[in-house]
Design a protein that fits this description.
The complex is a heterotrimer of chains A (311), B (276) and C (284). Chain A has 311 residues and is an all-alpha fold. Chain A has one domain: MetI-like (MetI-like fold), CATH 1.10.3720.10. Chain A is 74% helix and 1% strand. A two-stranded antiparallel ribbon of chain A has the order 1-2. In chain A, a hairpin with a 6-residue loop joins strand 1 and strand 2 (79-80). The two termini of chain A are 44 Å apart. Chain B is an alpha/beta fold and 276 residues long. Chain B has a domain at 17-115 and 186-271: P-loop containing nucleotide triphosphate hydrolases (Rossmann fold). Helices cover 35% and strands 24% of the residues of chain B. A six-stranded mixed β-sheet of chain B has the order 6-7-8-3-9-10, with helices on both faces. In chain B, a hairpin with a 2-residue loop joins strand 1 and strand 2 (37-47). In chain B, helix 4 runs parallel beside helix 7 (170-182). Chain B is globular and about 55 Å long. The model of chain B is unreliable at 9-15 (pLDDT under 50). With 284 residues, chain C is mostly helical. Chain C has eleven helices and two strands. Chain C has helices at residues 2-42, 48-52, 65-96, 101-113, 118-132, 139-163, 167-174, 180-209, 212-217, 237-246, 253-283, and strands at residues 55-56, 61-62. In chain C, strands 1-2 form a two-stranded antiparallel ribbon. The N and C termini of chain C lie far apart (59 Å). The chains are: A mainly alpha (311), B alpha/beta (276), C mainly alpha (284). Chains in contact: A-B, A-C, B-C. The interface between A and C is large, with 85 and 81 residues.
Chain lengths: 311, 276, 284
């Protein structure tokens, strides 16, 4: 063991130690603090909603708040029941999902399994284009193009209804449903399909009995993401859902989903007043709902991802 | 024992004063763990300065892990833990207070797969010196040229210094990576199977290069290719795993000795190709 | 018997394929219809004056210049406030944070916050920037609000792009005695920059189209002149479209469509840039 006995500390060797590298340390601190800051901002959203919204849920007991049908923010004393907002949200998100899922998944299957590359490219380009449309533009289109049709078709006084909003929302959730489902279908290993073809299946049988079931969790995540989008969308429903505060009984009633309720009420609410707090409480409930939907989607996607990766 | 690889040279170096100045390298009773798995067990050996030491052994025996102990690359794996003493220039490099960056500057590393940065050939070589504070264009030009010459790459790339480092052949890329290491003037160069991704001609070029570099640098090379170890190295360390899957040093000595007259039966079996 | 069952199977296949094609048509036809209709009805409003003049008669005449400028300012503000923080946070999460439950929780929180409705971010901005920090209904309050919303996105894309940088690059730099930060600064960030840039531009184009948050934090329908300081009120294209289409009676149709076209062009312009960056990055 020659070198262990030999005298250490050759001039060069000793410089291995004691370099403080202050610049480096400061930058690392900055990066760390910045990470903390970003997280504070993100958690701050929840904190603000809780702080501004919880008082309203104390003032009006939560079951009355959720299930009360009367929203009289400026009467004395005010009454806050958001059931009609909530039911409206369910209507528009429900209609949107009902329309967008079969169409979106069908299109995704076609793009992933059947379409020639050129056709797929063009369709995807158009879908991408649609996903870039701001929601206010979709609201505008619903307002001037779709609502007159709806009015005439159902012989209504106004074409601004839950159905109109639902149709526009379905268009807006299509891009995410199509692209996530398509990814899920493309991730199905070719061996699975080859095996099925080997057993004498037709192309459709392979799609229906092999590809779609294998990609099912990814497709359901796509659906969840579409639902999340429909629940959270604001401008479109503000512009085309009709804005009525009464409890909707049919899809062709004018209605005010939760997001639209916040958007139309916040301008008139006195800062810190009961209506202001009630609107934050609606925001809190929206936050929880979308978080829940997105968490499920993320979870399902995770499972799907693991399914085909062999250890 | 007639199917043993032929040994090209014998080890007969004399330590010079110059060698002494360059840090000596060695490890004593070193254990390396990844979590609860022990990758390397009780290794003690002394690397000779300004010579080539080959670490050989069957795959999965902890050769690469052992090599990465010398420049603390294992630090990058959060679960890695080390016991024992690793000395460089008389200092235990795992002691608190040792600057890993400075250590790696003096003990450079070349990897299995050529990994030039996605930038020009010039910038690849100049990368280290620039980070270490050299800004002067003339000084950089000089370092780049010298390093590429040393790496026997200058003639092939001198007219395309602005081209991407990824645009040249695999063998050239690997020599570029060696030039990149040389540019920061290390004392030791660790090479982790540097030829495993290369064709035979490119491999020969790298081997020639190693022999030339050995007059100025201490080189430690991990290789799965015994012929290569026999051709280029002065010293050879043979590693093997026991039933516990931890790599142990079976035999360490002059390459000529190991390949012609091994002390250990396992070494002989491995070298004559009975397993591995 | 066997023969007829095969026929039946092919018939099923034919019908299924017809349904799939119908689905694609249902996706594509409205998009094409909207595009054609929009251009046919809006192009007559588009003129140099429309782009460069302030509105008059409550937007029924004149142009939309202040709204375009306001939107450009909002986009810049969003990027200035969200990109540096987002990139550094992404670097922190990939390069420095230990892989423990806290980091995983943070990652989950970020992914989910990207899906929180924009109106909720509007409420956040109103409470924090407009009221608590007393910035008022100003350009800066709106930029900060949109930046908070964009943050989740910039962090996610930076994190993913930084993670996608091959480990070999990092090792190569570390192995020649380059420090961790220098490696990040000179190797990791340059390699990740196309991805980071893509995310930033997408965040920016989203900010350009976002309406609900700026509705809450107070965009103005008509301002006198352009904003001269970050604390001024501002006009913005999406809010302008909302107001002229929903709240101004007697609005000429071509003006509304014209505003919509300009808004979409601004948003898509950046999407096209993103597509170009992707193509270029792939070539490398």
């Amino acid at each position: 063991m020659a070198f262990f006995d030999s005298s250490p500390a050759t001039g060069a060797g000793s410089s291995l130690k004691g370099r403080p590298r202050w610049g480096e340390r400061i930058i690392e601190k900055v990066i760390f603090l910045n990470g903390v800051f970003a997280i504070i901002v993100l958690l701050g959203v929840l904190f603000i909603l809780l702080r501004q919204g919880l008082p309203a849920l104390v003032e009006t007991p939560i079951h009355e708040f959720l299930f009360g049908t009367k929203w009289y923010p400026v009467s004395e004393p005010p009454t806050f029941g958001i059931a009609s907002f909530f039911v409206s949200t369910l209507w528009v998100a429900g209609i949107s999902t009902l329309l967008a899922v079969p169409v979106g998944v069908g299109a995704a299957i076609y793009l992933a399994e059947v379409a020639p590359k050129k056709v797929a490219d063009v369709v995807k380009l158009l879908v991408e284009l649609l996903s870039g449309f701001p929601s206010v533009v979709m609201g505008f289109i619903g307002l001037v193009l779709l609502s007159p049709w709806v009015r005439e078709l159902f012989n209504l006084n106004t074409g601004l209804t839950g159905l109109t909003a639902g149709i526009m929302l379905s268009m807006m959730s299509l891009p995410i449903i199509v692209s996530v489902s398509e990814d899920a279908l493309r991730a199905v290993p070719d061996e699975f399909k080859q095996a099925a073809y080997g057993l004498g299946s037709t192309r459709w049988e392979v799609i229906w009995h092999v590809s779609v079931p294998s990609a099912l969790s990814g497709i359901s995540a796509a659906v969840m993401l579409g639902v999340g989008r429909a629940i959270g969308e604001t401008m479109t429903v503000l512009m085309v859902a009709g804005g009525a505060l009464a409890m909707p009984v049919s899809p062709v009633d004018p209605m005010t989903p939760m997001t639209a309720g916040i958007a139309s009420g916040i301008g008139n609410a006195v800062q810190g007043g009961p209506q202001y707090q009630a609107l934050f409480a609606i925001g809190l409930i929206l936050f929880v709902m979308t978080l829940f939907v997105n968490l499920i989607a993320a979870r399902v996607l995770e499972v799907q991802k693991r399914k085909f990766t062999r250890e | 024992m007639n199917n043993m690889p032929k040994v090209a040279k014998t080890f007969n170096r004399q330590y010079t004063e110059n060698d002494r100045k360059r840090g000596s390298l060695g490890m004593k009773n070193v254990n390396l763990f990844y979590g609860s798995f022990q990758a390397v067990k009780e290794i003690t050996l002394d690397i000779h300065t300004c010579s080539i030491t080959a670490i050989i052994g069957p795959s999965g025996c902890g050769k690469s892990s052992m090599l990465r102990i010398f420049n603390r690359m294992n630090d990058l794996i959060p679960s890695a833990r080390i016991e024992g003493k690793v000395e460089f220039g008389g200092i235990d490099i795992y002691e608190p207070g040792v600057d890993v960056v400075e250590l790696r500057k003096r003990i450079g590393m070349v990897f299995q797969k050529p990994n030039p940065f996605p930038m020009s050939i010039y910038d690849n070589v100049a990368f280290g010196p620039r980070r270490h504070g050299i800004r002067n264009r003339f000084a950089l030009d000089e370092i780049v040229e010298k390093s590429l010459m040393q790496a026997a790459l200058w003639d092939e790339v001198k007219d395309k210094m602005g081209q991407s480092g990824l645009s040249i052949s695999g063998g050239q890329q690997q020599r570029l990576c060696i030039a990149r290491v040389l540019a920061v003037e290390p004392e030791v160069i660790l090479m982790d199977e540097p030829c495993s991704a290369l064709d035979p001609i490119a491999t020969l070029k790298i081997e020639d290069l190693m022999s030339t570099l050995a007059s100025n640098y201490t080189i430690v090379i991990v290789t799965h290719n015994m012929q290569q170890a026999a051709r280029v190295s002065d010293m050879t360390a043979f590693l093997m795993v026991d039933d516990d899957h931890a790599g142990r040093l079976v035999e360490y000595g002059e390459t000529a000795e190991i390949f012609t007259n091994p002390n250990n039966k396992k070494t002989e079996d491995y070298i004559t190709g009975r397993f591995g | 018997m066997g023969n007829s069952s095969i026929k039946k199977r092919y018939l099923t296949q034919r019908m299924a394929m017809a349904i799939l094609v119908a689905a694609v048509l249902l996706v594509v036809a409205p998009i094409i219809f909207i595009l054609v209709y929009m251009i046919a009805n809006g192009y007559s409003a588009l003129s140099w004056e429309f782009l460069t003049q302030p509105p008059s008669q409550a937007g029924r005449a004149g142009g939309i210049f202040p709204a375009i400028i306001g939107t450009v300012f909002l986009m810049l503000g969003t990027i200035i406030f969200s990109l540096p923080v987002g990139v550094l946070a992404g670097v922190y999460l990939t390069e420095y944070a230990r892989n423990n439950w806290i980091t995983r929780l943070i990652n989950m929180a970020i992914i989910n916050l990207a899906g929180v409705p924009s109106i909720v971010f509007g409420l956040f901005g109103l409470a924090v920037f407009v009221l608590t920090l007393n910035l008022g209904m100003s350009l800066i309050a709106a930029s900060l609000t949109l930046a908070a919303q964009a943050l989740a996105m910039t962090i996610t894309t930076s994190r993913e792009s930084v993670m996608a940088v091959p480990r070999e690059y990092r090792e190569g730099a570390l192995a020649i005695g380059v420090s961790k930060w220098q490696t990040i600064r000179h190797i990791v960030l340059p390699s990740a920059s196309p991805g980071i840039l893509t995310g930033a531009i997408l965040a920016m184009s989203r900010a350009a189209g976002e309406t609900a948050p700026i509705l809450v934090v107070g965009a103005a329908f008509i301002t006198s002149g352009l904003p001269t300081s970050p604390f001024d009120r501002f006009m913005a294209l999406p809010y302008h479209l909302y107001t002229v289409s929903a709240h101004v009676p007697g609005m000429p149709a071509d003006v509304k469509w014209g505003v919509a076209i300009i808004l979409i062009v601004m948003v898509l312009f950046f999407n096209i840039i993103v597509a170009l960056i992707r193509v270029k990055a792939r070539k490398r």
